[in-house]
Amino acid sequence: PQRNFRGWTGCGLVFVRAGEGxxxxxxxxxxxxxxRWVAAEGIGDPKRVCIMGGSYGGYAAMWASIRNxxxxxxxxxxxxxxxxxxxxxxxxxxxxxHRYYRDWxxxxxxxxxxxxxxxxxxxxxxxxxxPILIGHGGKDxxxxxxxxxxxxxxxxxxxxxxxxxxxxxxxxxTTNSKDTTDFLTRxxxxxxxxxxxxx
Length: 199
Hints:
The chain is α/β, with parallel strands linked by helices and 199 residues long. The chain is built from seven helices and four strands.
């Protein structure tokens, strides 16, 4: 099932605002609570939970691999964000008006004194506690591909289990059937290896 964590659009303004300043914090707690609820209800096996997402969801999967190895067995990220500070610098270069950037920065960061390195997966790659599959589109203009590439490199340097694939012709997601099929095939193989049904 998909968990609608705070900050998600489509559930009202109050729900969106509840996510302000909660990247990697209460927004992540919502995902963890959802995984625990599924287990408590007997819907899923608590020993076989894998987290998967794209864009912010990709960030959440990366972060879960570090923050919650007790809840998740493996993680899959597509077009995820590993360095929140670098991502905000990139966003600033794209926004025409400074006030738009300032509003977005504050929504992500919250308290001005908060150090975003504390919720940036790339800063703690050595603490990753599970295998992770990472994908990214080479033409992604929303999230730079190096957000995934650098995290993968850091994971390998730390001796962690990481698989990485770049799709040169895709953007912020797999944007053609060939790339979609390839990535889903990789997901199937990854889950078969790291989260098989028989153990």
